């Protein structure tokens, strides 16, 4: 009966009764969101007629009114309806976009400090403007975090217009900005920034030597943060810590030897590989073989540490694959993000793995580094008093968001019903037949003209599929981590919805560009205007640099876009107008005088709808609108054709490690009520099932003898789902374990950084020094005197000598003084020694103030910061070693985490005591001297002589090197 009631619209003959029962008794998760927030949305909507009647100036004046009301104590919650209504009206006037009711719901959810799950194409970027504006009214700063510089820039330029129109200042952080520019941007009301730049600025601030070096706000560095693609940052990248490191002088030639040895060893004979754990283990035979080759007795000898070099060499060989885990650009190994398919320039694997990969590729090995400061995204973002996020896929990770970040997830209903058809998976036994079927599917869709987007998991797979399509004669575009493709990222993705388009892409997470059916006319018009304008205004030097980066081929210089990008020729009216306006623009801006960045900035303003009084911008904007109109006529017509064909068809070529990433790929199809379809092609040889599938899938591989036909069975589907869930749980356990361990270090980091920041900002460090003097005095007394011993047995002579050694100002102190002032009472003794230490400090300070006013404060700050940084760096190395070592204690029936907490705490207590001792000792010993003119001249002469000797030595070395080269020749 149930089967009769259920009408399954999917292209499958099997009805899933269990799934139906789940849907029957489980409410749509977005329904509760609609029910909860509809009253608040109706309240905002009721204000719309009143706000709509305001002039632009009146609308802007509301911002100052809101700020005054917030500063006088009115809560942001009470301001929300009116503030949201003002932002909605401003968005309509500036961008031509009126936020839907469901976008208002998303804004309320973000303001409440939750995660809003909104489908792809629902306008998350615009949603963030609402809570960002509201929370900026408190004048404490708002950070909008994106996954890359391009998105941060795009959002600040595009939706930032709304903030600017309403009188707020909008800041933008980019990777190449100076500290001064960063400081200004963070002081603005709303700052757009990437997760890595914000994290590194936090770490750099905690290495700053003075208040003038800080870039984050001094009073409120963190207030409210909205994270775009929150699952990508807080889950996918949670395992990757941000690290600021300094150079180490460890030798690098061992990496080359280890790479050669690793290449000669045989898998499963000399070593085993656990792909699941990402680990390599030498066998007994492997140990003997390596020791014979190296002529060493022990690979684990701490003086040579050959074991770590060999293991890293094997990991580089087996686990780090070129064009999958990394690419080689020039003479550099660049990591590829396994989740987004983007390159991570500047990032390096730690513990010698990056050097091992460089040796494997025969590149010059960069020196190893020592960690100076480090923080994980888990710890960093939990430091915000109020945190919110948005993504298209968060529901599958609800438990992790809640357990680690205390962030609830709310599913926002779509503005239009989803019309996408998700077809069942097609599974083959062997991978070669899967690729054959993928090509057949693409050819079939392409023949009808239906656009196809193909998702792959690596650069290597995308290149392989591209070669198959070339053989099949299918015209297509490739978007992967290779630099030449990254340059055209937005162009490729923006046009992926055109009739007959075939696009191969690595993971689509966070691409930030909507795929519009029929094509994106706005992007077409922008590229056409750039093609005509940039050759006239961009300087030749900048142009040469730009094309060197983009093409990597000398002599290829053209701003012309791919002609296939444009669906029609522009009207003669548009072209005539364009030529005339560009001629006037060159007169106004100068012939080839702008940098590429300046030109792109001005072009972005031209393509916006923001208010401007610049006549040149207004004239160019008119040309842009004419071009847009020409292209829009064709793309609108083409959209109707593509809709009739079924919309965008998404082909997945592998199940990812997480269902979220699969859903992100599916979500590219069927945006805003458009039709669409998806289908995944899999093989039982895919890494996911090979590594995590277990015995059930291995048995299936043996059971199915037919190799070139797809397999369908409930048992198979269950096995695939089980494998994917197993991977998700496995990685969640890793992140949870990382979180548990990082909590220990994070508590310590917070203490150290808070103390350090207090020292940087303090105008008077006397309270610090008094505290350090008292606690150090206590340490010395407790180390030399046993509280429980009889006073007659106290070693007061040794204590007096130790105190004089610790503080030269106490010279003359005797055991009799200690006896007289303690009278046999241990606490009285401690109090007396404390008083001596503090009095000595104040005497020293008074003497230094007399010598040079303000000098002592600067010296104290220097001592605190340098000792804190040095000892914290050593502490990080020690705690890292302990984390590796405690894992073995599980064999002794001890909980490694508890052991880590105990040892970590003891290390931390020891380190903080050492900081106090070093600082106060340096203060007591501080002896500045005034330089006479003669001594200054003597130092200058000495420096000149040293410089001359250095130059002579270098010249001699160069001459010797030159003679050696001639001799070789």
Summarize it.
This protein is of the alpha/beta class. The chain is built from 39 helices and 20 strands.
Question: Could you please describe the fold and organization of this structure?
Answer:
Pfam families: P-loop_SecA, SecA_DEAD, SecA_PP_bind, SecA_SW. Residues 949-959 have a biased composition (Basic and acidic residues). This protein is α/β, with parallel strands linked by helices and 969 residues long. The protein has six domains: 17-241 and 380-411, P-loop containing nucleotide triphosphate hydrolases (Rossmann fold); 249-367, Pre-protein croslinking domain of SecA (Alpha-Beta Complex); 419-517 and 647-712, Rossmann fold (3-Layer(aba) Sandwich), CATH 3.40.50.300; 521-635, no CATH class; 745-925, Helical scaffold and wing domains of SecA; 931-969. It contains 39 helices and 20 strands. The strands form five sheets. The chain has a seven-stranded parallel sheet, with helices on both faces. Strands 14, 15, 16, 17, 18, 19 and 20 form a seven-stranded parallel sheet that branches. The chain has a two-stranded antiparallel sheet with strand order 6-11. The longest helix has 48 residues, at 714-761. 37% of the residues are buried. Residues 1-26 and 551-555 have low confidence and may be disordered.
Helix content range: 55-70%
The profile of the biggest β sheet is: 7 strands, parallel
By DSSP (H or I, 4+ residues per run), the number of helices equals 39
Strand content: 5-15%
Class per helix and strand makeup: alpha/beta
């Amino acid at each position: 009966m149930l089967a009769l009631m259920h009408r399954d619209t999917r292209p499958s003959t099997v009805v899933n009764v269990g799934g139906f029962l789940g849907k029957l008794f489980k409410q749509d998760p977005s329904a509760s969101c609609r029910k909860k927030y509809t009253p608040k949305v109706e309240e905002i909507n009721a204000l719309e007629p009143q706000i709509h009647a305001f002039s632009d100036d009146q609308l802007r004046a509301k911002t100052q009114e809101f700020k005054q009301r917030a500063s006088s104590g009115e809560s942001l919650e009470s301001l929300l309806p009116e503030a949201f209504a003002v932002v909605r009206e401003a968005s309509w006037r500036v961008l031509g976009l009126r936020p839907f009711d469901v976008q208002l719901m998303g804004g309320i959810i973000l303001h409440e400090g939750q995660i809003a799950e909104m489908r792809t194409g629902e306008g998350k970027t615009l949603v963030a403007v609402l809570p960002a504006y509201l929370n900026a009214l408190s004048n404490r700063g708002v950070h909008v975090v994106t996954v890359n510089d391009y998105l941060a820039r795009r959002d600040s330029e595009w939706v930032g217009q709304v903030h600017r129109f309403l009188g707020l200042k909008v800041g933008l952080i980019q990777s190449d900005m100076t500290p001064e520019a960063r400081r200004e941007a963070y002081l603005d009301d709303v700052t757009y920034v990437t997760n890595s730049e914000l994290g590194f600025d936090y770490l750099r601030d905690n290495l700053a030597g003075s208040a003038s070096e800080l870039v984050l706000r001094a009073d409120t560095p963190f207030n409210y943060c909205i994270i775009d693609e929150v699952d990508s940052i807080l889950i996918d990248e949670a395992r990757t810590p941000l690290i600021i490191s300094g150079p180490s002088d460890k030798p690098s030639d061992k990496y080359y030897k280890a790479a050669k040895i690793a290449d000669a060893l045989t898998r499963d004979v000399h070593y085993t590989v656990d792909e699941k754990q990402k680990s390599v283990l030498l066998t007994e035979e492997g140990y003997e073989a390596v020791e014979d080759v190296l002529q060493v007795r022990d690979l684990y000898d701490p003086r040579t540490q050959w074991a770590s070099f060999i293991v890293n060499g094997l990991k580089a060989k087996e686990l780090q694959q070129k064009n999958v885990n990394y690419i080689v650009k020039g003479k550099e190994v660049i990591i590829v993000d396994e989740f987004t398919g983007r390159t991570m320039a500047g990032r390096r694997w730690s513990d010698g793995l990056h050097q091992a990969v460089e040796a494997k590729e025969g590149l010059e090995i960069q020196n190893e580094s020592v960690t100076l400061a480090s923080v994980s995204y888990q710890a960093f973002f939990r430091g915000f008093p109020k945190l919110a996020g948005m993504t298209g896929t968060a529901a599958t990770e609800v438990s992790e968001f809640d357990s680690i970040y205390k962030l609830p997830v709310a599913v926002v209903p779509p503005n239009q019903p989803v019309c996408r058809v998700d077809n069942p998976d097609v599974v083959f036994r062997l991978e070669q037949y899967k690729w054959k079927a993928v090509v057949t599917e693409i050819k079939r869709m392409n023949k009808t003209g239906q656009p196809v987007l193909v998702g792959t998991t690596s650069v290597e797979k995308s290149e392989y599929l591209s070669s198959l399509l070339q053989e099949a004669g299918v015209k297509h575009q490739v978007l992967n981590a290779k630099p030449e493709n990254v340059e055209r990222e937005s162009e490729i993705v923006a046009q992926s919805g055109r009739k007959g388009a075939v696009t191969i892409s690595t993971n689509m997470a966070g691409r930030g560009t909507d795929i519009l059916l029929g094509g994106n006319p706005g992007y077409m018009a922008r590229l056409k205007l750039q093609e005509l304008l940039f050759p006239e205004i961009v300087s030749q030097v900048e142009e040469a640099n730009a094309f060197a980066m983009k093409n990597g081929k000398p002599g290829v210089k053209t701003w012309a876009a791919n002609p296939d990008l444009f669906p029609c020729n522009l009207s003669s009216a548009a072209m005539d107008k364009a030529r005339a306006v560009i001629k006037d623009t060159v007169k106004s801006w100068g012939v080839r005088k702008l940098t590429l960045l300046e030109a792109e900035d001005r072009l972005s303003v031209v393509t916006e709808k923001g208010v401007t009084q610049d006549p040149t911008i207004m004239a160019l904007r008119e040309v842009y609108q004419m071009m847009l109109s020409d292209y829009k006529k064709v793309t609108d017509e083409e959209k109707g054709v593509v809709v009739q064909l079924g919309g965008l068809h998404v082909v997945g070529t592998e199940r990812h490690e997480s269902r979220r990433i699969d859903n992100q790929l599916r979500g590219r199809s069927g945006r805003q009520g458009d039709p669409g379809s998806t289908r995944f092609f899999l093989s039982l040889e895919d890494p996911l099932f090979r590594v995590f599938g277990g015995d059930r899938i291995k048995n299936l591989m043996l059971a199915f003898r037919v190799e070139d036909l797809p397999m369908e069975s409930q048992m198979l589907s269950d096995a695939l789902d089980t494998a994917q869930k197993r991977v998700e749980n496995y990685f969640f356990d890793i992140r949870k374990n990382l979180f548990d361990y990082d909590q220990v270090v994070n508590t310590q980091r917070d203490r150290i950084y808070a103390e350090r920041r207090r020292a940087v900002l303090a105008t008077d460090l006397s309270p610090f020094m008094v505290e350090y003097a008292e606690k150090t005095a206590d340490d010395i007394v407790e180390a030399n005197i046993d509280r429980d011993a009889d006073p007659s047995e106290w070693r007061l002579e040794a204590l007096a000598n130790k105190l004089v050694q610790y503080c030269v100002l106490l010279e003359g102190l005797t055991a009799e003084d200690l006896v007289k002032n303690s009278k046999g009472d241990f606490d009285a003794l401690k109090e007396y020694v404390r008083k001596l230490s503090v009095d000595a400090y104040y005497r020293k300070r008074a003497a230094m103030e007399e010598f040079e006013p303000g000098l002592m404060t600067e010296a104290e700050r220097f001592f605190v910061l340098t000792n804190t940084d040095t000892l914290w760096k050593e502490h990080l190395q020690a705690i890292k070693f302990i984390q590796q070592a405690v894992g073995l204690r599980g064999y002794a029936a001890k909980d490694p985490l508890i052991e880590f907490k105990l040892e970590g705490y003891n290390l931390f207590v020891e380190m903080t005591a050492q900081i106090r001792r070093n600082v106060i000792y340096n203060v007591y010993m501080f002896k500045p001297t005034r330089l006479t003119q003669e001594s200054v001249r003597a130092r200058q002469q000495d420096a000149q002589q040293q410089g001359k000797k250095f130059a002579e030595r270098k010249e001699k070395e160069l001459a010797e090197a030159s003679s050696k080269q001639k001799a070789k020749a």
